[in-house]
Task: inverse folding
């Protein structure tokens, strides 16, 4: 397990203050946050490349603050891969192994070939790293980090330099390798989709602090700070206040009543957030049926993105607007057009409590 | 005239100025004189002295410049700004003044102690080496710092996470990556040492067959109004330095890795 206790890091004008983090062993942890939030600084500190001003770093319950980077048993894959440009692919992967004096040349070659084969870079071994594609460089850098068989792997924005079409494949590869080698992985990203593909747990970093840590399964059921909810793709926020009935709350923005049966609401007035894709349209033939959490809104604008349509809705007689996303297929099937009045619903399980 | 044309014309004018000056020496070119220069023991000795002293001075400068340049490039330390300023000393103080400072130093009790017990540098071969070393040390360090500055520290960092100690990271990563840049710095340092005049003549004088280097030989020939002899030595010095500079360019043709 990696544990940070009250870590404070000064880096020029930037300050990470009293950061605490517990990353369970053999799990895939993702530090999710916007650019410039301090994610890379945290990884470099764990890797031993930056010394914290105060606080303790524990690896498997052993204090490692004073242990130099080379002895930390932690592999690190930086954002730009940092492949040594004067060495070919083989020599890059073999670099760390060659530093281990007890390893025979044949053993090193065997390990390099095994890892290269696993990451599908065997055909590149004699090539210069300078002319490799972004994806190839990434796999070589990963091979170089993994071949040392260290239990912890730190990944800094590994998908940021990859084409969108390759990001998913690379994430799946990372997940497979993490399970195969039983690694404790700590990965930074600002890309929500990449995070959700691989993470067992998410740690939200913003403005130099970890704002929330949560298991991937329960993240939407956690009480989310508004900026984190936004980072997770929640872009519709409403305020609810108690209605006369039990577990019912009135939403001023949507002019409707919400029902909460599962959530334990303690405060009188509270906020909720809903992702655009979790707002559903009630079919015309069903609009007379009973649905909880339903409201009426007018289609103000529609934006098309690949297979989806983003619909901007306006609540009648108010200036409140919200976003709904559905497949373009459904948009056409439901005959949704600008100016049309829609009956919408939100399922309770898709509602996040925010603050 | 467009900006592009103005700046390109300016660059070409530099070439023309130097080419014209070099070409002017051919006005006094004489193959017999060239043959004479290459068979003259005094000239041959001056070539040997210049080359040998420059080699030793360059090696001495390298031993101090490489670690110093690395320290200046990678670390922050208390006297760093002062070191940085003093690297320019040989450039802001005239070579003759630098030579005079050396002579003054070797006239102090400490200098005399060194001359009596370690090495006498006044009017000796050692004096040429010391004069060249002091003159090139700053520029050599400056050139090498620029080379290390160009190598991103992230390569060393990643080497550390792969198990390399700071020493290993320096020798296995930084130094090999800096190889070409360092080599070009070495050659430029050597060329600067070979051409050194002011400090050399002040400290070591210009005694034929003893402390006469190519630049001091040029001065001696000129002072005797031997124009043709002067031109031949100039061309020899020019030939040696240009060959090295062209060789440097050749080495640097693929310097950028990324």
Result:
């Amino acid at each position: 397990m990696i544990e940070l206790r009250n870590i404070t890091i000064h880096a020029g004008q930037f300050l990470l203050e009293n950061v605490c983090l517990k990353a369970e062993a053999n799990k895939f942890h993702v530090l999710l946050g916007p650019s410039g939030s301090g994610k890379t600084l945290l990884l470099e500190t764990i890797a031993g490349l930056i010394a914290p001003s105060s606080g303790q770093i524990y690896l498997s319950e052993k204090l490692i603050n004073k242990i130099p980077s080379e002895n930390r048993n932690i592999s690190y894959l930086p954002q730009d891969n940092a492949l040594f440009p004067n060495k070919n692919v083989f020599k890059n992967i073999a670099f760390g192994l060659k530093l281990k004096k007890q390893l025979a040349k044949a053993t090193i070659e065997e390990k390099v070939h095994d890892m290269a084969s696993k990451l599908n870079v065997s055909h590149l071994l004699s090539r210069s790293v300078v002319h490799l594609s972004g994806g190839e460089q990434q796999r070589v850098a990963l091979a170089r980090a993994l071949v040392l068989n260290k239990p912890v792997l730190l990944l800094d924005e590994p998908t940021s330099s990859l084409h969108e079409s390759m990001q998913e494949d690379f994430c799946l590869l990372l997940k497979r390798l993490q399970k195969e080698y039983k690694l404790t992985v700590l990965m930074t990203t600002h890309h929500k989709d990449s995070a959700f593909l691989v993470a067992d747990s998410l740690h939200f970093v913003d403005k130099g602090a970890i704002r929330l840590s949560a298991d991937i399964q329960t993240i939407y059921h956690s009480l989310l700070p508004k900026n984190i909810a936004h980072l997770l793709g929640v872009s519709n926020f409403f305020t609810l206040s108690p209605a006369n009935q039990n577990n019912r709350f009135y939403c001023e923005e949507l002019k409707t009543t919400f029902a909460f049966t599962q959530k334990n609401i303690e405060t009188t007035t509270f906020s909720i957030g809903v992702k655009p894709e979790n707002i559903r349209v009630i079919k015309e033939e069903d609009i007379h049926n009973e649905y909880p959490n339903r409201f009426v809104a007018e289609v103000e604008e529609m934006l098309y993105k690949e297979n989806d349509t983003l619909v901007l809705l306006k609540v009648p007689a108010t200036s409140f607007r919200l976003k709904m996303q559905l497949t373009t297929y459904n948009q056409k099937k439901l005959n949704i057009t600008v100016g049309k009045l829609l009956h919408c619903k939100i399922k309770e399980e898709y509602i996040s409590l925010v603050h | 005239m467009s900006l592009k044309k103005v700046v390109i014309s300016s660059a070409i004018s530099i070439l023309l100025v130097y080419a014209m000056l070099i070409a002017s020496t051919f006005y006094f070119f004489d193959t017999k004189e060239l043959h004479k220069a290459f068979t003259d023991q005094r000239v041959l000795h001056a070539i040997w002295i210049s080359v040998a002293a420059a080699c030793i001075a360059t090696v001495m400068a390298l031993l101090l410049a490489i670690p110093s340049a690395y320290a200046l490039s990678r670390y922050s330390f208390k006297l760093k700004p002062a070191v940085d300023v003093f690297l320019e000393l040989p450039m802001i103080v005239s070579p003759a003044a630098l030579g005079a400072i050396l002579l003054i130093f070797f006239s102090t009790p400490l200098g005399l102690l060194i001359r009596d017990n370690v090495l006498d540098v006044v009017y000796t071969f050692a004096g040429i080496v010391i004069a060249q070393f002091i003159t090139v040390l700053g520029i050599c360090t400056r050139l090498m710092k620029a080379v290390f500055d160009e190598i991103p520290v992230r390569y060393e960092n990643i080497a550390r996470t792969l198990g390399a100690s700071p020493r290993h990271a320096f020798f296995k990563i930084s130094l090999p990556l800096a190889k070409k840049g360092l080599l070009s710095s070495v050659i430029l340092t050597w060329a600067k040492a070979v051409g050194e005049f002011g400090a050399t003549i002040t400290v070591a004088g210009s005694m034929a067959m003893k402390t006469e280097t190519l630049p001091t030989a040029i001065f001696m020939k000129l002072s005797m109004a031997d124009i043709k002899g002067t031109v031949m030595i100039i061309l020899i010095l020019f030939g040696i330095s240009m060959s090295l500079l062209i060789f440097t360019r050749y080495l640097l043709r693929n310097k950028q890795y990324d």
